[in-house]
Amino acid sequence: MSLPIPNLKTMQSGDQTLVWDIVRKKWVVLTPEEMVRQATIHYLHQQHSYPLQWMAVEKQILLHGRKKRFDLLIYDREAHPWLMVECKAPMVAIDGSVFDQIARYNLKYKVPYLIVTNGDQFFCAKIDHENQTIDWLSELPTLV
Questions:
Q1: SS3 of 132, please?
Q2: Phi, psi (5° rounding) for residue 95?
Q3: Helix (H, G, I), strand (E, B), or coil: what is residue 110?
Q4: Residue 19 lies in a domain
């Protein structure tokens, strides 16, 4: 599945194009990865009704003593981490290293759903932490 390109609010600042992030409520530099992140946010919100106020974008986490940043984390109705998204630029292949990266980030949160995307490819998995299994989903889960 390829993500639809949303109509984004942009502006020029010197030689950089900025995009308005509807979750962080600020202007950010529009890199290829940021375009994928914004397309994912808009897609999850507009097509699947995931509330913006339940999303966290590019927050720092401490993992094995090292500072890392996840791309997008969505919380459930009870404010528990529920779905994590790893975004890559369109030219970055979605391979085992991308899945390894999001799996490492998920060691901290133990969310039941993971998404990896580069805009052209979009994969969603359900993680059963108790049985240590992964099921690949053809549709996104309904937010509970």
A1: coil
A2: -130, -170
A3: coil
A4: no
Domain membership of residue 11 (yes or no) is no
Looking up residue 128, the CATH number of its domain turns out to be 3.90.1570.30
- Where is 39: in which H helix or E strand? helix 32-46
Q: Count the domains in the chain.
A: 1
Q: Beta strand pairing status for 66-69 and 113-117?
A: unpaired
Q: Which residue do the tokens 């969603």 mark?
A: 124
A 10 A CB-CB count for 67 gives: 8
Answer whether residue 125 is part of any domain.
yes
Closest CA to 58 of 31, 93, 90, 76: 31
pLDDT digits (tens, 9 = 90+) for 18-77: 999 999 999 999 999 999 999 999 999 999 999 999 999 998 888 788 888 899 999 999
Quote the DSSP letter at residue 12.
E
C-alpha radius of gyration, the chain, whole number: 15
Where residue 126 falls (left for φ over 0; alpha for ψ -120 to 50; beta otherwise) is: beta
Strand bridging mode 81-87 / 72-75? antiparallel
The boundaries of the domain holding residue 59 are 32-137
* Distance between start and end Cα atoms, the chain: 23
Q: Does residue 109 sit within a domain?
A: yes
